[in-house]
Amino acid sequence: MLPVARTAFGGRHFRLHGFTLVELLVVIAIIGTLVGLLLPAVQAAREASRQSTCSNNIKQQSIAIHNYMDAKKGIPPMVWDNLPEGVAWTSSSTALADNIPGLPWSCLILPFCENDAVYNQVGNATGNFTKHWSDGQTTVDTLAKAPNLLFECPSNSTYGRKRSSDSYGRSNYGINAGTRDPGGNRFTYWGAVGTAVGNSGDVVTGSEKAPSGITYKLYNGDGISFPHWNVAALNPSKVSDGLSKTILLTEKSSTDVAGKRCYSTLQKCEFNDGGIWLISKLLGNCCGHTGCKTTDSCSYGNADNNLINYGSTHYDASFLASSNHVGGAFFSFADGSVRWLNDTTSGTVYNNLRRRADGNSVQDY
Fold this sequence. Notes:
The protein is of the alpha+beta class. It has one domain. The chain has helices at 21-72, 105-108, 116-125, 139-144, 347-354, and strands spanning 4-6, 12-14, 79-81, 101-104, 170-171, 173-176, 207-209, 215-217, 247-251, 275-276, 299-300, 306-307, 310-311, 328-333, 338-342. The chain has a 5-stranded mixed sheet. Strands 1-2 form a two-stranded antiparallel sheet. Residues 85-91, 182-204 and 285-289 have low confidence and may be disordered.
């Protein structure tokens, strides 16, 4: 029974118990503490979910590449640069006619990852891939400006948003173009048969005849993909180190997270807000190759001094394997497996994993 008190007029009034100010503040403090304890767990769960999506993205792309390999009998080129008869690969022309159709690996695998409709639209717009994607039409350009979340990592704050520089849909994944750095071209280059090229001292080991009968010079890089006139650029048998020991795809951050890890705080890193998932941009005077620009093509190769999430020179952020996950990034290997590589991975191990045929054994990592 509630306690009562009599008023001066003989009436009764009931005393109601409630929280005092001190009690209320204590309750608020307890709730705040519980929220503080729960938030990290919630954030960790969200990041785990984002990492799962990212890992699944790179896995699905790798499966699509394997299906592509089965159909085309080769690994897709970094960029399909189908030069017409009579045009040598040493040309530095940026004419559209010299760069047909100028589409990256990520476009070529679309029929093998449930994106047939987009691929067919690209084919129709380019005359069945007989002209450059931007030659006199806007269909492909419009398609490229629609984001495709299969090619984006949700851990990036830019997830689902267009590139700020040109409004194209982003890509956060790149194909392994190796470690060569001949100066001026960070991802690949061409050279004359048997002749040293660039400053690396490597030599081209052979040549190849195109359907027109013209002998083209072979790529002398060491990765798993490179610009090529043929949609089946590299036979898997050429990966002599083993498919399970050669990187196929890597993550590429579309925020400045990688740029903050450059070697010098005195030099600003050149931030790159992601590749483009459907197209490649033209770039002339690039060690003789015209097909793509590294900041746009979604195809990343870099020198030995560029490691995971870290560049040793101020401009290397554009060419790094990098992610917004803490401590490393997801990679897929040429056998289709997906693995996590810490950003503390030995440079020797990491570079051996990027080279398809260096003959070096890779220890545990």
